[in-house]
Amino acid sequence: MPKLDSSVKDVVNETIAPMGISQIRYFAQKFAKIPGIIKLTLGEPDFNVPEHVKQAAIKSIQDDKSHYSEQRGTIGLRKAVSSYLNKQYDVTYDPESEVIVTIGATEAVFISLAAIINPGDKVIVPTPTFALYLPIIQVLGGIPIQVDTTPDNFRLTGKKLAEVIDQEGAQNVKALILNFPGNPTGFVYSKEQLEEIVDVVKDKSMFVISDEIYAELTYGRKHVSLAKLMPGKTILINGLSKSHAMTGYRIGYVAAPADFIENAGKMHAYTVTAPSNPAQYAAQEALENGIEDPIEMRKIYQERRDYIVGQLNDIGYKTILPEGAFYTFSKIPDKFNMSEVEFAEKLAEQGKVGVTPGSAFGKGGEGHFRMSYASSMEDIQEAMKRLRKFTESLEN
C-alpha cells in the first residue's frame, strides 16, 4: 500500500483538512458496533422502493439507456419534476431552463451555494438543522451565521431574521437556508410564518435556499412551498430519497429562475457531468405514476410518531410533537448534568439505544438528542423500554 510522500504531506486544502466527518454519520457508525443496539440514528426510510419504480429502472437497463443523459438530467425527468411541483405545490418551472436533476439533494445544496457565495459572504442558517449546510458554506469560503431557534420552538421568526440581518450587515448576507419540514425537529412552517420571512427578505439582495426534501411527509397539514410565495428569490430543493424511500438512487433536483440555474448548472456539469440513467428513469416513474406512494408510508410514520412522542414525554424528555419528517428532538433534563454527547454515548453503551446528539445539528441543538422513527414499531417499542430503564438508572 502506498505511503504519502513527505514532499506532499502539507499540500492540502487548509479549509477541508481540519474538518471532521459528519457527526450524524460518526455516531451512527460508532454506535452500530455495539452488540444488540437498536439504531434510531440515521434518517433513512425503512420501506422498500415501490415495485413499479424498481421496474422502471430495470427496463431502462434492458432498453440500453446506457449513454450520457443531458447534463441537467433527462428531459423526461425534468418535465416530470415540473409537473409534479405544479400539481403538489402550485409552483411553475420550465423544465428546459429552470430545473437541474442532481445527485441527491446534497448536490443540489452544494451547487446552489456555489452559485451564490464569494469568499467572505455570509449565509444565515437557523439551527438546529441538517449540519451539511455549515461545512459546505465554509468550503466555499463563506461564513455561516448560526441562529439558535430553540427559544421560539425551533422556528425562525421574521423579527429574529431581521435582527440578524441588521447585525451582520445586509450587504454581507447573500442567502438564508430554510429546511422544512425540519431535520432534526420536524418543524413545519405555515403560510403565515413563511410570509414573515418573505416580508423581511423581499427587499434584500439575498436568496433563500428552501430545502423541502421532506415535503411529502407532513402530518395534519398540507406543505406550503416558499417558492409559491417568493418564486423570484427562492432556490427550491427537493428529491426522491424521503418521499419514495429512494435514498440509494441519489436523485434530487433544484428548481429556480433560469438565470440562477444557468450558473448553478455550470458547477453541476463540472462536478458530476450527468446523473445515472437507471435512477433517472425510476425517478420519472415515481413522479409521474407514484404521487400516492408516500401516503401509506406517511400513515405509518404518523402512528410511530404519536407513540414515540407520548413515550418520550412520559419518561421525562420534553418533546414537541413534530409536524413533519420522521424525527423527534428531545430535551435532556438539566438534572442529569451531562452534555448531549455524554448522554448519547451512555445511552448507547448502557441502554443499547443509538440516538444522535443534538450538537450534530449546530449550536441550537445542544442539550438535545434526535431519534429517527424511520424504523419498525417493534424496534421503537423496545427502544422506549430500554430508554425508560436507562433513565431510571440515572435517577437512582
Automatic annotation (TrEMBL):
Record-level GO BP terms: amino acid metabolic process
Annotated ranges, domain Aminotransferase class I/classII large: 37-387
InterPro entries according to UniProt: Aminotransferase_I/II_large, AspAT/PAT-like, NHTrfase_class1_PyrdxlP-BS, PyrdxlP-dep_Trfase, PyrdxlP-dep_Trfase_major, PyrdxlP-dep_Trfase_small
Keywords, alphabetical: Aminotransferase, Pyridoxal phosphate, Transferase
UniProt xrefs under PANTHER family: AMINOTRANSFERASE (PTHR46383:SF4), ASPARTATE AMINOTRANSFERASE (PTHR46383)
Coiled-coil features, chain-numbered ranges: none
Protein name: Aminotransferase
Family statement: Belongs to the class-I pyridoxal-phosphate-dependent aminotransferase family.
GO molecular function: pyridoxal phosphate binding; transaminase activity
EC number: 2.6.1.-
EC class (word): transferase
One Pfam family cited in the UniProt record for this chain: Aminotran_1_2
Cofactor dependency: pyridoxal 5'-phosphate
